[in-house]
Design goal:
By secondary structure, the protein is of the alpha/beta class. Helices cover 51% and strands 10% of the residues. The protein has 10 helices and 8 strands.
Length: 283
């Protein structure tokens, strides 16, 4: 029995040294300035590992994806890492799933990332956030306009959390969120009904439905280097044509398809100029 205990200790030390070696390798890659992706999944990181990793992540300008799925993160480690990423301008994907952060840990992560504008995908599945964590995530979704995918599955979220999340998406008209994963949560019928409100209140959100051929062509024209930015074409007033018949004058809603494309293109350019604070007559 004593020999088995002695054998178990070196194995534990090997695991610890393995996580430390993986962290050191990741830090070195980040310092080299060419690393775009760090995957430390299912590696049991300890607090000193994250303390070493966080500054390197913060200083990296090339990092695009960071996954610490199942990395045994503590609440303090997750907060330290999230604070390092709060103002990161390059990171687009962050996965902290399958770590027992609890509601407190998720709240700390959400508070740190609430003003981040580069993140597109956020993974917080299986973090035991509960309704309190869902409410913290809802605060992020109320003001965030960059996230397109959020993973909250298997987190014991009930009707209360579902109400906060759906309310946040209804409130934020500029949200680009197209994928919200909530499977494995006991939402109940009332919770599911909350999300069905999105279909009724936001039936024409362009980010959530494919563009038709005319709008797709208009988008391509508007973003074209020569046809889009440098074009001096202003918004066209394409009215429905008028058809005279024995029963009087009636409007024909089917205008020329090409004119509809050009109109959509010019409208897109106008909105883009207004967004960036440019005058309508400038490229």
């Amino acid at each position: 029995a004593g020999e088995r205990k002695n054998e178990a200790k070196p194995r534990e030390e090997e695991k610890k040294s393995g996580s430390s070696k993986a962290t050191e390798a990741a830090v070195q890659r980040l310092r080299d300035g060419r690393c775009k992706m760090i995957l430390l999944c299912d590696i049991k990181l300890n607090d000193p590992d994250v303390t070493q990793l966080a500054p390197a992540v913060k200083q990296s300008t090339c990092l695009r994806s960071l996954s610490l799925h199942g990395a045994n993160l503590s609440v303090s480690s997750a907060k330290l890492l999230a604070n390092a990423l709060a103002s990161h301008e390059a990171l687009t994907m962050l996965d902290l799933g399958n770590n027992l952060l609890g509601s407190k840990g998720v709240e700390d992560v959400c508070n740190a990332l609430i003003h981040n504008t580069s993140l597109l995908a956020l993974g917080l599945a299986r973090t035991a956030m509960g309704d309190s964590g869902a409410t913290a995530m809802a605060h992020v979704l109320r003001i965030n306009c960059s996230l397109t995918e959020v993973y909250l599955n298997s987190n014991d979220i009930t009707e209360e959390g579902a109400t906060d999340l759906s309310g946040a998406l209804l409130f934020n008209d500029s949200s680009r969120l197209s994928k919200l994963y909530l499977y494995g949560n006991p939402l109940g019928k009332a919770g599911v009904d909350e999300f069905k409100k999105l279909e009724k209140d936001c039936p024409f959100v362009q980010e959530r439905v494919p563009l038709d051929d005319a709008r797709a062509l208009a988008f391509a024209m508007a973003t074209h280097k020569r046809l889009g930015e440098n074009s001096q074409v202003k918004i066209l007033n394409v009215k429905a044509s008028v058809h005279k018949s024995e029963k009087g004058i009636r409007e024909v809603r089917r205008s020329n398809p090409l004119l509809r494309v050009i109109r959509a293109c010019s409208e897109y350019r106008q909105k883009k100029r207004e967004f960036y604070g440019l005058e309508a007559n400038k490229s």
